[in-house]
Design brief:
283 residues; mainly alpha; Arc Repressor Mutant, subunit A; 3-stranded antiparallel β-sheet; two-stranded antiparallel ribbon; 9 helices; 64% helix; elongated
């Protein structure tokens, strides 16, 4: 297939879906990204998701892939290689592909379940649907085979092995859904970080004056040595002191906050806001 042919095929593929859609704004955006890809200006895109869509278009154009039937496994391999070559964040690229696989797999499952339900709902064939002479002939043939000792043929239902291929629009729209999920996750993480900072700030304010200044450096050094014994493994905060003793608990927490502020340790909570607090040596 010539380059001009595949260009035309991709454009027609998008325009076909545009003719069926009520809201065409996202398809117009795809056409804009496609045009930038053809001109080579897509590599300067800053938005990682728009760039991921552009790289998908680029692969389809350069590899002459059929926009109506893209082998998802082959595409994924080519995509990661291309992303690596362009120094695209491989974590982002991997997450986008993972989300696309996940979304498309869910869509496939929905289609399969729908098809199976449709088969079950079909009207069963009864003897009344056949003429008498039809089933009489079958009965005679069957009886003859039994008398002659022949093996009765067993007809098994044939199930087609699905070779999952996706259209270019399915793939690109899965990328867009991955973008939305990532944006929601980033917003949630931002809110969590803000809340964690507020809680730590309030804790620091409440603890002011709880520990005598002359002993603070000594307590920090003591906690730091305990953390170093774990060789970089995550440690529950409660394991650094007698957590049932209020004074020891406050002293350990103040020491941990100082060490975190100095960049020596990382403090995190796996299940915010009520989960266990962990510390990890970062040096």
């Amino acid at each position: 297939m010539k380059d001009s042919d595949i260009d035309h095929s991709v454009i027609q593929h998008i325009l076909f879906h545009k003719s069926l859609a009520e809201d065409t704004s996202h398809l117009d955006r795809y056409l804009e990204i496609l045009e930038k890809t053809k001109m080579g200006s897509h590599l300067n895109m800053e938005d990682p998701f728009d760039k991921s869509i552009a790289l998908a278009f680029e692969l389809v154009l350069q590899q002459h892939l059929d926009p109506w039937a893209i082998d998802l496994a082959k595409f994924s391999s080519l995509y990661i290689k291309r992303a690596k070559k362009e120094n695209v964040d491989l974590v982002v690229a991997g997450k986008i592909l993972y989300m696309a696989w996940k979304i498309l797999n869910m869509q496939s499952q929905d289609v399969r379940i729908s098809a199976e339900e449709s088969e079950q709902m079909q009207e069963e064939i009864s003897w009344d649907d056949f003429a008498i002479e039809d089933w009489q002939v079958d009965e005679q043939s069957y009886t003859r085979m039994v008398v002659d000792g022949k093996r009765i043929p067993i007809i098994e239902p044939v199930r087609r092995k699905a070779d999952r291929r996706v259209s270019l629009i399915e793939l690109i729209e899965a990328f867009d859904l991955a973008r939305k999920e990532a944006e929601e996750y980033q917003l949630l993480e931002k809110l969590r970080k803000k809340e964690r900072e507020r809680i730590l700030r309030e804790a620091q304010n409440r603890m002011k004056g709880s520990v005598h200044e002359e002993h603070l450096e000594e307590e920090i050094e003591k906690i730091w040595k305990r953390i170093q014994r774990f060789n970089g493994r995550a440690i529950p905060l409660k394991n650094l002191c007698n957590f049932n003793n209020k004074e020891e608990r406050l002293t350990a927490l103040i020491a941990v906050l100082h060490l975190a502020s100095d960049g020596k340790i990382r403090v995190y909570q796996r299940r915010f806001p009520f989960g266990m607090i962990y510390v990890r040596n970062m040096t």
